[in-house]
Amino acid sequence: MNGVVKLCSPCGIVLLLMLHYKAALGIINGDEVVPHSLPYMAALQTEINGRTIRCGGSLIEVNKVLTAASCVYGASSVTIKLGAHNLEEDGAQVKLNSSVFTIHQDFDPDLHLHDIAIVHLEQNVTLNDSISTISTPPLGDILLTFADDLGMVAGWGKINDTDPNYSNVLRKIEMTIIPFLACTIPYLGKVQTSQICTTGMQNGKNICLGDSGSPLVVNGTQVGIASYGSDLGCSVGAPGVFTRLTSYYFWLLGEE
């Protein structure tokens, strides 16, 4: 059966378990953000095995962009846009190129474990109203689960399952972070404690194709990196899976 196993309980309840998943998440029915109101956002584009890969990221230092390892794994270089809102016509954006990435040493491209990477910019960027950094969790938050907190994800990814085009303007959605155990069932236990999950379809909104690497933000702090969702489509309501930044506090510290 392609991607779905039906388990019938004695009471007749059918439980759908998502066996497969796909990288590159985007925003379904997201709201267009106020231009430059999320100045930490980065748009990434690269070529991997002849395919154009579009991802999100976040500026965490004046010369470092945090993203998913799956966005740069196998790439020779990446193009980064900072200070962007409309990728096609925004005059405020800064376009940079980099061929230097640090991918987590234990990254598993098949299971999307340790899906975290840093793109090193060739020069420091000048911070302004359109370009700014975002903070990552401090050591004191390392044991927090963020369960039931409201998180925000933004990106330039696909806006629905059927339209092949990506959004040129930055869009955002708000999603509730769910407890770890609630996320392990849909993915047959493949989700690890180093990952964090948000609800699936919520108020008609979800994450979809096009924005792995985008930050999951809670109260102004980035707590996750968009990693993967179900390959059954964006509308099935499966949770979105993110790399949990508190699990990589010391890795990030070592990259400073």
Notes on the protein architecture:
The protein is mostly beta strands and 256 residues long. It has three helices and 19 strands. The chain has helices spanning 69-72, 180-184, 249-254, and strands at residues 4-8, 14-18, 21-23, 25-28, 31-32, 41-48, 51-61, 64-67, 78-82, 94-98, 101-103, 117-120, 150-155, 171-178, 195-198, 206-209, 215-218, 221-230, 240-244. The termini are far apart. Mean pLDDT is 84; it is low at 1-20. GO terms for molecular function: serine-type endopeptidase activity. Keywords: Disulfide bond, Signal. InterPro entries: CLIP_Serine_Protease, Peptidase_S1_PA, Peptidase_S1_PA_chymotrypsin, Peptidase_S1A, Trypsin_dom, TRYPSIN_SER. Residues 27-256 form the Peptidase S1 domain.
